[in-house]
Amino acid sequence: MKAWADPAPAEPVAVAGVVARARMAAVAGAALAVAMLAPMLLGACAEPYAAPCRVEGETYLVRETALPPGVSGRLLPRVRVSEDGSLEATWLATTSVLRRNLPVDTVTRGDALVASADGREARRFATAAPLALRSRRGSTIPLGTYALAEGLLFPWIEEDVLTARDGSQQTRSRLRSQIVHFDGSEAPLQSAVAATCENCTFAASSARLSDSAVILVTTRTPDGARGLFYVYLAKDGSWVRTEELLWGKQDPPENARDPGDADSTGRFDRNYAVESVGDAYIVRGFGEERVYSRDFQPLYGARTFEAPDNASVYRGNGRLQVVYPEPVDEQHPLRDDSAVGRGEGRALYFAEYDEKTGARTAAPKRFSVGAVVLGATHLGATLRTSAGLDYFAWLTPSGEKVAADLPLAAVPGTVVSSLSSPPGAASPSMLPRSFVDYRVSAGVVFRRSIVCGN
Amino acid sequence: MGTSSLQRFIGAASSALACALVSPWVYAEGAPALAAPAADASLPLVFATVNPRLGSEGGIRTFDSLGRLVFSYSDAISPGLGPDESSAPGKALGVLGRLGKAVFFDEPLSEFEGTAIHEVFGHGSRSREVGLKASYTFTLPGVYCFLFSSECGARGHTLRTDYAKTVDAEIAVVAGGIEANYATAHWINARTAAQSGLVRYDDAMLYTLSKLQYAGSLLTVRGGSLTATVANDVDNYALLLADRSNRVSDAERTSIGSRLALASLWNLADPMLLASVYGLVVRYVGLGERTWTLPLPKVLGATVFAVPRFNLSPFGAEHYLDGFVHRGSFTANSYVRVGSSGLGSYLGAGARVFQRMIHDRVYGGAEVDVWRQPELLLQERAVYMRRELWGWNAGISLEWRIHQHLGILGRAAYKTRGHMIGQPLDEGVHGYLGLSFSR
Asked: What domain range includes position B351?
C-alpha cells in the first residue's frame, strides 16, 4: 500500500488518480446499493404473518344515546343468544318519583330487541311494566325482563317491612313475576307461598331457554342461615313449580369461591347463580356447578363439577367446557396487557369436564392472558385486559389456542357481552368458523361478526 | 500444565474444531501468498452511526473500539518502568504492581465497558428497536463499588418506559444484554483471528467478563419464580421462554431452567475463555506481557481458529461453532448454530468475510446467513403455536481508507424476519456507516 505522504505526482498522474478514485467510489456505491436493493426485491417472497381470524362486520342494532321522554334511567341490560343463534337483548327503564319527599326510581318500562342469527331481521319493542311493579315506591328489586312470545316477563322481589304490635320489625321478601303482553294487557300476577320468606332477604339470579325459564333465589336470615329455592317457569311465563334446592343449602366456608354471576342482584357477597348453557341450565355454587336439563332436572346423577371462579361455561361435544382467568393474589401487581411470564400476568385457561363423571378430562390449557373472560362458546372466547383492551381467541375443540389474539375495537359504554357460534358450531370441523360477539348496555346493542379460517 | 503445553493443547483443540468449518475458506483462498502489509492484519477501530433499528452491531463495535482506545494508555507506559524482576523481591513487586493495576484500573474499565455494552447496546438497543424508550443507570465499577457503595448488585440498569407489547419483543429485550456481551466476545474472536492469534490483555479481560458475567446465573437458573419481584436477566429470560412456549406450570418451568443451565456449559467450554484467563493471570500479571499470541494452527498458510459461541435466542439457548480463517488481508468466519431448548426447532449457518483488500485502500467484506426458526411475531399477542420458517441475511461491507489511518466504513445488509445475534429482529435493511481508524 502506498504511503499517504508520498510526494505529489505530476499533473497527469494526479488526474488519473482522481479518476481512479472516483471510479472506485462509484463501484463501491453501486455495490452498496445492490446489496440493499436486490435483497429487498427478493424479500418480497417472505411469508408475512396472516391472521386467520378477522372482523367481518360491525353494526349497532340499537343505539339510543338519549333517554326516551318520561324515562329518567335505564338498568339491568341482559343479553341471551338462543340455541338457534337468535338474539334477545333487554333492559328496564325507570322513572324517578317522590316517596316521602325523597326521589326513588320505579320501573316503568321494559325494552327488548329480538334479532335473527344473521342480524338482518331485528324487532325492537317496549311495553309498560306491570302495574304491580310500576306502583311500587322503593323496597323493590327488579330482576330484569325477558322477551317471551306473548310479551315481556318481569320478575322482581318485593321487600316489605312488617311492624309487630311490640314494635319489632321484620322483613318479608316475596318473589313475583308478571307478563305484559305486547298489546299492553297483563297476564295474572305470579307468586307462591314457597316464594315468600318472613324475616329474611332474597338474592336472585335467572336464566331462560327457548321454552322455559328459571329464577334461582338464595335466601338469608338475619342470623346468616342460607336457603336456596327455584321457580321453574313455562314458556308462557306461568309458574310451574317452586322447590327448594337441597344441594346448595350448605353455608359456604369463608374462603369459598364465589360464583361471580353477573346477573345476580348482588345483594349478598355470596349467592348461587343460574345460567343457560346450550340447551341446559347450570347452577353455580361455591366452587361447584351442577347441570340441569331444560325442564330443570339434574343431569347425570346430580354430579357436580368444580369449575374455577369467574368461569364462563359452555357445553360442547358432550362435555362441559369452561374458560376462566387464573386466580391471582390481590397483593401482587397485575399486568396482563403486555408480555407476560414475569409473574405478573393473569393467564386465561381452558378446561373441560366430562358431564357423566364430573371429572376434568385434561390439564387446563392456557390460551391467552387477560383480566376477564367476556364471553365463551365452542371454539372461541372474548377477553378483556386490565388496560381495557378486548381480544378474541380462537381455540381448537380441545382448547389449544390457534394463532394470535385478534384485537377487537372497543364498544364504549356496553356492560354485558355474549359470544356465540351459529347453529352447528359443535361439529368437530374447525374450518371455516364464524362467531358473533354482542355487546349490550341499556339502549345499545352492538353486533360484531368474526370469521376464522378462510 | 505448563505454559507451552497449555498453548499446544489450545492450539490442537482449536485446530481440530476448525478443520470442518474453515476448509472452504482455505481452499477458496488458494495457496499463493498474499503480500498484505502487517498494518492491515487487524480489524480497525470502528466508530459507527448508532441506529438501533439498523442493529446493535455498530454500537457494539463503537464501544468496543472506545475501550481499545482507552486501553491504549498502556502503550504509553514503558515496559521498563517497573522494577527489575530478575530478583525475587523485584518479581513480587512487579506482580503486585500489575495485580493492583488490573484490580484498580483495568478491570473497572473493562467492566464498565462490558456493562455499557450490555445496557446500551443490549437491552437499550432492543428496547428502542421495539419502540420503547430507554435510559440507563450505572454503579461504580469493579472494586470501587465494594469500597464506596452500599449497593453492589447489578452494575447497570436499563430503565424502560414500559414492557414490550408482545412476548417475542420482550424476550429479545430481556436477553439483549447478554446477547450484546456474547456479540462482543465474538468480535474479539474475529479480531484475534485477524491478528493471527495476537491477544491484548484488555481484549482478554473484556472477553472474560463478557463470557462470565451471567455464567453463574445461567448455571443455577431453575425456570424463574412466579412470585419473585426482583429477578436477574436470566430468571426473566427463563420465565419468558416458558410464557412464549406456553409451558407455564412449575414442572415445565423447572425443566426449561434445567435445560438452559445445562446448555450454558457450552458458553464455558471455550478454549478462548481458558486462554484469556490463563493469559491474564500468567502472561499479564505474572510475566508482565501485554500481548501474547495464541499458537493457532496454520493450514495451507492460513491461520485457522475455531471457537464455540453461545447465545440466548427468543427460542432458547443457541450453540454456535465458529471457524475463523485469516491470511494476509483476508479474515473470514463461518459458523453453524443449533438450538437445544426443546421448545422448538431452530438451526442455521452462515459465513462472513470481515475484510479483504479488493483495491488499493479499499477493503471489502460480505456476509450470508440462513436459518430455520419458529416464527418471530413482534406485533401479535398470545401466540402459542407457530410456524417454522426459513430466513436469510445477506450483505456487504466496504472500508475505504482515505488516509493511512483513517477510513470510511459502511455495512449494508438485508435480512428476513428472524433472530440473528446483534441484528434487528424484523425484516429489512440494516447496517451502519462510520469511520475506521487503523494504527
From this structure: 3-437
